[in-house]
Amino acid sequence: MRKIRIGLLIPYSGIFRNLRADFRQGLQLGLRNLPANYQIEFAEEFIQTGGKPFVEQALNKLLLFDNVDIVIGVAGTKVILQCADIFEKHRTPVIAVNLGGFVPTYQFRSDYLFHTSLELWKSEWVMGKWAQVHFGADPAVSLSYYEAGYNMHECYRYGLHAAGAASVKLNFISNMTTQPDTLPLINQLEILRPGHTHAMLSGKEATEFLYHYNQKNISSRTALTVHPFVTDECLESADPLAAGFYSAATWTYHLDTAENSAFKSGYESAFADRPNAYSMLAYECGLALSQSATALGQRSVNRESLAESLRGVSALGPRGNFSLKTTPYATMHPVYIRISEVSKKTQQLENRVVDQRPAVSWEQPDILEAAYQNTSGWQNPYLCV
């Protein structure tokens, strides 16, 4: 029996309340494609909210004490790159998974670094361009300082400019307290009266913002698009009242492809639960690792051989063909424009795909410019708070 020992990095998330189970279940489903003569063992490390010290400590323990063959986990793009000397020294493949709050720049590459992401930087750029084309006039963005700590709002802004917007008004929540207060954002909309605004918020702030937006009838003069996790039906906090808003994502639960249907069916049959974005991303990791193991044939299974094999893998997942390598990192997933609706069948919030836009590359000049607008930013993977 051939064995692969996998180290897992699992952070805390108050948004994805069952992140550990979501991630492990998606990975386990993807690993069902392994050859029959393979056995999997797991060693798991909790990394708090994903700060660099916690990730460094976890990597050192997994590589030196647990002696894993590969590390797969939820880690921030910038933090995992700052930890590259650890896994490169031990010549161990690491698959970093996150929602894509940061653009992966030219520095984000290594023979031992692999990556899959929801690519929010990409979908926000596409959302900005789409919104400006459809709503026109003077745009605005309503966001918190937390969301501003990533590249997403800059990508959205450049998408607006790509569709002809001359200027964009950024409205920030000025306080960072435990109690959300989004009325200042609503007040700014009442004063400025933009043609449309984009809500880049999460958690309780997003819920409160939508409440005030509806109560004060802002929709009568300002159209609203939202960040995908404002109206995501796979979150426990999904609000059935948050209907009628457009968002964009590279994957959505109701994506109508054979591969996504097979993924959903397999996941729900195995775990009696609905998969979310992290389930899907982990599933991609499992598919890629399964194909990598198959490609090894009779060669020995070790850190170096797995890294070499993974670099050559191109797999087919719920979003289409993908590769995890970062030498270079290349991803061409299209972006789906969705509208949130209350399902007549379930009376629950659902996102229906209404348009599809082609992929954009992180090497596109304006997207790289967005990346370099924020040279610091938060350490935690987006929504791991």
Automatic annotation (TrEMBL):
UniProt keyword annotation of Signal present: yes
Domain Leucine-binding protein: 3-337
Organism superkingdom: Bacteria
Keywords attached to this entry: Signal
InterPro entries named among the record's database cross-references: BCAA_transport, Leu-bd, Peripla_BP_I
Pfam families: Peripla_BP_6
Family: Belongs to the leucine-binding protein family.
Protein name from the UniProt record: Leucine-binding protein domain-containing protein
Lineage summary: Bacteria, Pseudomonadati, Bacteroidota, Sphingobacteriia, Sphingobacteriales
